[in-house]
Amino acid sequence: MSKNIRVVIGLISNIILFIFGIRGLLINEPTPFASYLFTISGLIGVIALLMELKKRNNTESKTSKQI
Asked: Where is the chain membrane-spanning (predicted)?
Protein backbone atom coordinates (compact mmCIF):
# COMPACT_ATOMS: atom_id res chain seq x y z
CA MET A 1 0.00 0.00 0.00
CA SER A 2 1.44 3.36 -0.96
CA LYS A 3 2.13 6.05 1.61
CA ASN A 4 -0.44 8.44 0.09
CA ILE A 5 -3.20 5.84 0.45
CA ARG A 6 -2.33 5.40 4.13
CA VAL A 7 -2.46 9.15 4.66
CA VAL A 8 -5.88 9.38 2.98
CA ILE A 9 -7.25 6.48 5.06
CA GLY A 10 -5.98 8.19 8.23
CA LEU A 11 -7.52 11.47 7.10
CA ILE A 12 -10.92 9.85 6.57
CA SER A 13 -10.68 8.14 9.97
CA ASN A 14 -9.86 11.40 11.73
CA ILE A 15 -12.72 13.19 9.99
CA ILE A 16 -15.10 10.49 11.25
CA LEU A 17 -13.64 10.82 14.77
CA PHE A 18 -14.10 14.60 14.62
CA ILE A 19 -17.72 14.23 13.43
CA PHE A 20 -18.58 11.85 16.28
CA GLY A 21 -17.03 14.26 18.78
CA ILE A 22 -19.05 17.20 17.43
CA ARG A 23 -22.18 15.03 17.40
CA GLY A 24 -21.64 14.19 21.07
CA LEU A 25 -21.27 17.85 21.95
CA LEU A 26 -24.38 18.86 20.03
CA ILE A 27 -26.67 16.28 21.63
CA ASN A 28 -25.49 17.30 25.13
CA GLU A 29 -24.19 14.02 26.50
CA PRO A 30 -24.09 13.87 30.32
CA THR A 31 -20.29 13.55 30.43
CA PRO A 32 -18.79 15.50 27.54
CA PHE A 33 -15.19 14.42 28.26
CA ALA A 34 -15.15 11.76 25.54
CA SER A 35 -16.76 14.14 23.07
CA TYR A 36 -14.13 16.79 23.74
CA LEU A 37 -11.41 14.16 23.42
CA PHE A 38 -12.76 12.89 20.08
CA THR A 39 -13.22 16.41 18.72
CA ILE A 40 -9.77 17.66 19.69
CA SER A 41 -7.89 14.55 18.61
CA GLY A 42 -9.83 14.34 15.35
CA LEU A 43 -9.13 17.99 14.56
CA ILE A 44 -5.42 17.63 15.32
CA GLY A 45 -5.26 14.52 13.14
CA VAL A 46 -7.07 16.19 10.25
CA ILE A 47 -4.76 19.21 10.32
CA ALA A 48 -1.60 17.09 10.59
CA LEU A 49 -2.61 14.71 7.80
CA LEU A 50 -3.68 17.54 5.50
CA MET A 51 -0.26 19.11 5.98
CA GLU A 52 1.40 15.74 5.32
CA LEU A 53 -0.64 15.17 2.16
CA LYS A 54 0.13 18.67 0.93
CA LYS A 55 3.84 18.13 1.58
CA ARG A 56 3.78 14.84 -0.32
CA ASN A 57 1.99 16.37 -3.30
CA ASN A 58 4.47 19.26 -3.41
CA THR A 59 7.48 16.93 -3.36
CA GLU A 60 5.94 14.74 -6.08
CA SER A 61 5.30 17.75 -8.30
CA LYS A 62 8.87 19.01 -7.78
CA THR A 63 10.36 15.64 -8.71
CA SER A 64 8.17 15.38 -11.81
CA LYS A 65 9.33 18.85 -12.94
CA GLN A 66 12.97 17.82 -12.61
CA ILE A 67 12.49 14.80 -14.86
From this structure: 7-27, 33-53
DSSP string, 7-58: HHHHHHHHHHHHHHHHHHHHTT-S-THHHHHHHHHHHHHHHHHHHHHHHHHH
CB proximity list for 43: less than 8 A, separation 6 or greater: 18
Total-model pTM: 0.83
Fill in the DSSP letter of residue 63: H
Torsion angle, CA of 44/4/9/12, rounded to 10 degrees? 50
